[in-house]
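Need a sequence for this fold. Nothing fancy.
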């Protein structure tokens, strides 16, 4: 008895569906790609319940005639390539001919379409495993594809779908990426009958960027543009001051196709590495136009990766282009000049460090304890007075009787705030006299509104305020003057990335900790902001009260101790 058999067609398609369309957003991506390949100028997407109930896409592209309609749901049916040679010169987004076959294997599909001048259109209805039904339809010069009940016949996959809000966030992200890559196309997205995205055709990337992210965010980016030997790079990178605490807004498009490419990301980080703190990330939207013969797009079923003929050349182009806009800008920047000044004054203060230290310490020792000067060095007056000396960056030194302590003020402050945020009773919430209105990109708006309660628990009282806007009515005292928008974007990205099912309590706790750490990081004093002695004493006193005073929420040290014993060892006396 032979053990091997060829799998039935429907099962083959279901297996392929597993690779190509792992979630509703992937279906949206494939269908938008088809509309773009069909030359559409307008693409409208309608979603019910995060795509679980309905995904509907309408375009005004070329449409299909009846012969093509009967073929397009077959596996490996494509109009985009014909021969092996074409495979190495791909100018369309699709070419594998498997999206429609996969989609029709795991959902109920209706497609209505007609070509530009045909008097009558075609409607086809498909239920997985059943005969296709084809009928006449009114002519519409374009295509409407509706798919209902995704994965209804593959319960194991359906189980992996996340909440409506999470699936919706992925869909918004997909539409946003497509909209960035194709500014000339007009996109709209509706969810359960409310408008999420509405973008008229834009004249270029800059205008599309503004439509999606507002002028305010746009101003935090620098334009990149460079070309070498037929490779064109363009896009935007964040100014060094706008470093994020999460890896959001990091998009790379190759020939207008969003891809993951660690080498390009590395080239970007390489430029930023000395300009932004180690725990921060740059934001970037980079587009590379490469001769299709020099890039292989057929290396990933969902086409998320590509392979370059000469990766080094791409690396160098990206690195040098970003350097050109970022580094000269930094030199001209006022904040950079201030840093220079700061370094100068640190040098000066280091020169007078010893004498000033003695003078100031003596003066205050005199005020509190007259007559004790002679015993000053032997009596250990220094620790009582608590003088902190600024070393540079985020570091201060404190000398006690038998110990030298180096404090990282940012890490210390993070620990204090982190524990305050975690222990809800400790946050002091203030109603804002003038509520703050914040406009958010569609995806983050969706996440923030769906997790209003989590924000509320952290003392941020947020209400919806029309399309993609929120109103903040109250805030914890600690984050009163923070960059509220940046904070909402960062917390939204934590929630999005952790992707936690509601019932998983232990993971939920982890999420709350991560949010607390993010809030703490946002408001903690930054490296070069100098605190005065009183503020530092207060900070250290607060730090002492925390559960883990020696570690910041990310596990880095808040302070390092050099005991007398350590010093003796270092000076080789022990
Ligand atoms: P691929 O995009 O890889 O060719 P698909 O399964 O996504 O494979 O689509 C199969 C074919 O159906 C396409 O090659 C195209 O000819 C046709 N098609 C799909 N969607 C559309 C659309 N919106 N408008 C016009 N033609 C379409
Ligand atoms: Mg396709």
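Here you go.
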């Amino acid at each position: 008895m032979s053990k091997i058999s060829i799998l039935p067609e429907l099962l083959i398609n279901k297996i392929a569906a597993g690779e190509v369309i792992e979630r509703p957003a992937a279906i949206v991506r494939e269908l938008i790609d088809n509309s773009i390949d069909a030359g559409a100028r307008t693409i409208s997407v309608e979603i019910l319940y995060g795509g679980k109930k309905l995904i509907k896409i309408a375009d005004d592209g070329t449409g299909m005639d009846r012969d093509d309609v009967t073929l397009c749901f077959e596996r490996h049916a494509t109009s985009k390539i014909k021969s092996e040679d074409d495979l190495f010169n791909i100018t369309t987004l699709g070419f594998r001919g498997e999206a429609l076959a996969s989609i029709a294997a795991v959902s109920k599909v209706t497609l209505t379409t007609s070509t530009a001048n045909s008097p009558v259109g075609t409607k086809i209805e498909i239920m997985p495993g059943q005969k296709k039904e084809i009928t006449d339809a009114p002519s519409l010069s374009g295509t409407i594809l509706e798919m209902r009940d995704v994965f209804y016949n593959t319960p194991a996959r359906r189980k992996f779908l996340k909440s409506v809000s999470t699936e919706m966030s992925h869909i918004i992200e997909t539409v946003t990426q497509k909209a960035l890559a194709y500014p000339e196309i007009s996109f709209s997205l509706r969810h359960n009958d409310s408008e999420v995205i509405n973008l008229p055709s834009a004249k270029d990337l800059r205008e599309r960027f503004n439509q999606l992210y507002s002028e305010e965010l746009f101003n935090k980016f620098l334009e990149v543009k460079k070309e070498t030997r037929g490779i064109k790079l363009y896009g935007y990178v964040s100014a060094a001051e706008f470093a994020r605490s999460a890896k959001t807004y990091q998009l790379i498009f190759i020939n207008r196709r969003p891809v993951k490419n660690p080498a390009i990301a590395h080239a970007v980080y390489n430029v930023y590495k000395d300009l932004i703190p180690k725990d921060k990330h740059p934001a970037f939207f980079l587009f590379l136009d490469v001769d299709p013969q020099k890039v292989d797009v057929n290396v990933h079923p969902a086409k998320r990766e590509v392979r370059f003929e000469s990766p080094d050349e791409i690396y160098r182009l990206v690195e040098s282009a970003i350097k050109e806009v970022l580094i000269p800008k930094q030199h001209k920047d006022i904040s950079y000049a201030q840093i220079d000044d700061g370094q100068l004054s640190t040098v000066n203060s280091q020169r007078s460090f010893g004498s000033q230290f003695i003078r100031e310490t003596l003066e205050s020792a005199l005020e509190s304890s007259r007559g004790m000067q002679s015993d000053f060095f032997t009596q250990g007056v220094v620790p009582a007075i608590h003088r902190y000396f600024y070393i540079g960056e985020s570091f201060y030194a404190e000398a006690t009787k038998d110990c030298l302590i180096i404090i990282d003020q940012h890490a210390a402050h993070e620990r204090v705030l982190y524990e305050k945020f975690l222990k809800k009773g400790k946050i002091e919430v203030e109603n804002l006299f003038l509520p703050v209105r914040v406009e958010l990109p569609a995806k983050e708006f969706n996440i923030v509104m769906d997790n209003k309660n989590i924000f509320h628990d952290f003392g941020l009282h947020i209400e919806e305020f029309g399309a993609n806007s929120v109103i903040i009515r109250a805030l914890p005292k600690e984050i009163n003057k923070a960059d509220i928008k940046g904070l909402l974007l960062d917390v939204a990205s934590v929630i999005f990335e952790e992707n936690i099912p509601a019932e998983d309590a232990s993971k939920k706790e982890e999420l709350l900790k991560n949010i607390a750490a993010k809030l703490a990081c946002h408001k903690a004093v930054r490296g070069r902001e100098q605190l005065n002695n009183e503020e530092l004493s207060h900070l250290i006193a607060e730090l002492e009260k925390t559960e883990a005073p020696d570690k910041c929420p990310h596990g880095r040290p808040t302070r390092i101790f050099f005991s007398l014993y350590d010093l003796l060892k270092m000076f080789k006396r022990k």
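For context: DSSP finds 20 helices and 22 strands in the chain.
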